[in-house]
Write a structure and sequence with these properties.
DNA-bd_dom_put_sf, 3 helices, about 40% helix, AlpA family phage regulatory protein, alpha+beta, AlpA
Protein backbone atom coordinates (compact mmCIF):
# COMPACT_ATOMS: atom_id res chain seq x y z
CA UNK A 1 0.00 0.00 0.00
CA UNK A 2 1.35 3.44 -0.91
CA UNK A 3 0.92 6.34 1.45
CA UNK A 4 -0.75 9.47 0.17
CA UNK A 5 -0.32 13.00 1.38
CA UNK A 6 -3.50 15.03 1.70
CA UNK A 7 -3.57 18.81 1.73
CA UNK A 8 -6.23 21.16 3.03
CA UNK A 9 -7.69 24.32 1.55
CA UNK A 10 -4.95 26.62 2.85
CA UNK A 11 -2.13 24.60 1.30
CA UNK A 12 -4.12 24.12 -1.92
CA UNK A 13 -4.62 27.87 -2.28
CA UNK A 14 -0.90 28.43 -1.66
CA UNK A 15 -0.21 26.13 -4.61
CA UNK A 16 -3.15 27.10 -6.84
CA UNK A 17 -4.06 30.79 -6.58
CA UNK A 18 -7.62 30.41 -7.84
CA UNK A 19 -10.89 31.29 -6.15
CA UNK A 20 -12.68 28.55 -4.22
CA UNK A 21 -15.61 28.71 -6.64
CA UNK A 22 -13.32 28.41 -9.68
CA UNK A 23 -11.71 25.29 -8.24
CA UNK A 24 -15.13 23.83 -7.39
CA UNK A 25 -16.42 24.48 -10.92
CA UNK A 26 -13.30 22.91 -12.44
CA UNK A 27 -13.78 19.84 -10.22
CA UNK A 28 -17.39 19.52 -11.39
CA UNK A 29 -16.28 19.64 -15.04
CA UNK A 30 -13.55 17.04 -14.42
CA UNK A 31 -10.77 19.58 -15.06
CA UNK A 32 -9.23 19.47 -11.57
CA UNK A 33 -8.60 16.70 -9.01
CA UNK A 34 -11.66 15.94 -6.89
CA UNK A 35 -11.71 16.82 -3.21
CA UNK A 36 -11.91 14.06 -0.63
CA UNK A 37 -14.49 14.49 2.13
CA UNK A 38 -12.76 13.76 5.44
CA UNK A 39 -15.73 14.79 7.58
CA UNK A 40 -18.98 16.59 6.88
CA UNK A 41 -17.12 19.92 7.22
CA UNK A 42 -13.56 19.15 6.18
CA UNK A 43 -12.16 18.29 2.77
CA UNK A 44 -8.69 17.64 1.37
CA UNK A 45 -6.97 16.98 -1.94
CA UNK A 46 -4.41 14.36 -2.88
CA UNK A 47 -1.09 16.22 -3.17
CA UNK A 48 0.16 13.89 -5.91
CA UNK A 49 -2.93 14.52 -8.04
CA UNK A 50 -2.63 18.29 -7.60
CA UNK A 51 1.07 18.23 -8.50
CA UNK A 52 0.31 16.08 -11.57
CA UNK A 53 -2.38 18.61 -12.61
CA UNK A 54 0.16 21.44 -12.32
CA UNK A 55 2.72 19.52 -14.40
CA UNK A 56 0.10 18.77 -17.07
CA UNK A 57 -0.79 22.44 -17.28
CA UNK A 58 2.90 23.33 -17.63
CA UNK A 59 3.46 20.70 -20.33
CA UNK A 60 0.44 21.87 -22.34
CA UNK A 61 1.53 25.47 -22.13
CA UNK A 62 -2.12 26.13 -21.35
CA UNK A 63 -3.25 29.72 -21.47
CA UNK A 64 -6.63 30.83 -20.23
CA UNK A 65 -8.98 32.51 -22.67
CA UNK A 66 -10.07 35.97 -21.67
CA UNK A 67 -13.84 36.42 -21.57
CA UNK A 68 -15.05 38.16 -24.71
CA UNK A 69 -11.74 37.76 -26.53
CA UNK A 70 -11.73 35.83 -29.80
CA UNK A 71 -8.66 34.62 -31.63
Amino acid sequence: MTSRVLIGRKKLHEMIPLAERTIFNMEQRGEFPRRIALTSRNVAWDLGEVEAWIETRKAQGAQAQRPGMRF
